[in-house]
Amino acid sequence: MAITSADVYSYFEADQLAIKVAGDQDYTRDDCIGSIEVERETKTVTKSCRGVVKKRKTKPTGNGTITLKMHIKLALYRKLNAMTNEGLQPGVYAFDNTVSMPEASLTARVKDEDDNIMFLGYPRCKVEEIGKLSIENGAEEVAEVEMKLSYMPDDYNKGEYQALADELTGSALTAENWMTEFSSEAAQA
Hints:
Blueprint: E1 13-21, E2 28-29, E3 33-49, E4 52-70, H1 74-80, E5 83-84, E6 94-95, E7 104-111, E8 117-129, E9 145-151, E10 161-164, H2 178-181, H3 184-187
Antiparallel strand pairs: 1-2, 1-7, 3-4, 4-9, 5-6, 7-8, 8-9, 8-10
């Protein structure tokens, strides 16, 4: 039985992830995901009268952070972190502190415990923290790369999009193309 938007949806598993770095034509899928953690920012405005809060209004800012733990494809890692081999010997790449991190779009397919699918989309992201490089000799498990990305509102003043697969009917975005064709423009009515 498919859930409806009125039912509870509990995030359980992220089984697909795709990232499109600014300037690229296509999303790069990299499904070896350990975890995705999203933290949304809010802004609270209060109105006080003689030192007592009389009114409070909280709104999402459209900003937030995404922490990824995964085994990432090397070419994608280099692009996201603005690594370059310009002016270097063939095969040599370096972090260039004169170049800022590029923008990217991120999509994810997540499931709840009953395998109901939800798609997530973040149209404007940038790597904020590269994370630690962890190498442990004799380890029994290969360490995942951790990266922290910030996301910002797009031209429509939205920073995060989501859709249940069953609700993507009659839309330009479908369950079949969300991961490869998501964009802010495609999400608009």
